[in-house]
């Protein structure tokens, strides 16, 4: 399990492109059972990542002066998605800028390959969420543009978020 967690972290870091694409992974500790407990834990981990990127790189540029959404709003905005959609979204977010789509961070086939490995590593029973799709999303980060994909197998989680301002 520790080896898988380390592999997950290495794979995700290959998709990160600070200050636009941020990742976080680790051990998940749901406070209650079932999908609801996993969702609450995922929202908390996502909220931590959003807070970190806001403080580190985006506080002075963010469009929302109130800062990132509280954890309860993050949880409410997460919508379930299928694993194949999670892999495609993760690949797109790791490779193509939300603000200026003609700008790329990495080659799309490589991003798709790594994203597919992340999804595969979490396994077929993993649950996946996002705050939108390629055309619309619900803001969480205080930036004008943010889109994320997050997944968990009940024990481990992976989050990838892209943020930006125009």
Characterize the largest beta sheet: strand count, sense, and whether it forms a barrel. 5 strands, antiparallel
> What separation lies between the terminal Cα atoms?
41 Å
Specify the helix fraction band: 40-55%
| Strand neighbour order, sheet with most strands | 1-5-4-3-2
Structural account:
With 166 residues, this protein is an alpha+beta fold. The protein has helices spanning 2-13, 34-58, 71-77, 83-95, 108-122; strands at residues 21-27, 79-81, 127-130, 145-152, 156-164. Helix 1 runs antiparallel to helix 5 (108-122) and helix 2 (34-58) packs across helix 3 (71-77). The protein is globular. The relative contact order is 0.23. The mean pLDDT is 87.
Supply database-style keywords.
single chain, 166 residues, alpha+beta, 5-stranded antiparallel β-sheet, 5 helices, 5 strands, 19% strand, globular
In short:
The protein is an alpha+beta fold and 166 residues long.
What secondary-structure arrangement, pairings included, does this model have?
Elements: H1 2-13, E1 21-27, H2 34-58, H3 71-77, E2 79-81, H4 83-95, H5 108-122, E3 127-130, E4 145-152, E5 156-164
Antiparallel strand pairs: 1-5, 2-3, 3-4, 4-5
Helix pairs in contact: 1-5, 2-3, 4-5
């Amino acid at each position: 399990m520790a080896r898988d967690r380390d592999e997950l972290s290495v794979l995700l870091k290959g998709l990160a492109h600070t200050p636009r694409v941020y990742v976080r992974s680790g051990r998940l500790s749901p406070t209650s059972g079932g999908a609801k407990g996993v969702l609450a834990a995922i929202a908390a981990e996502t909220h931590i990542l959003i807070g970190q990127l806001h403080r580190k790189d985006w506080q002075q540029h963010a469009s929302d002066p109130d800062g990132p959404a509280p954890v309860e709003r993050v949880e409410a905005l997460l919508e379930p998605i299928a694993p194949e959609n999670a892999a495609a979204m993760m690949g797109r977010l790791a490779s193509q800028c939300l603000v200026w789509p003609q700008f790329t961070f990495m080659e799309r086939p490589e991003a798709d390959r790594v994203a597919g490995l992340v999804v595969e590593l979490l396994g077929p029973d993993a649950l996946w969420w996002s705050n939108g799709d390629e055309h619309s999303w619900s803001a969480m980060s205080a930036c004008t543009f943010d889109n994320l994909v997050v997944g968990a197998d009940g024990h481990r989680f992976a989050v990838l978020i892209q943020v930006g301002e125009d």
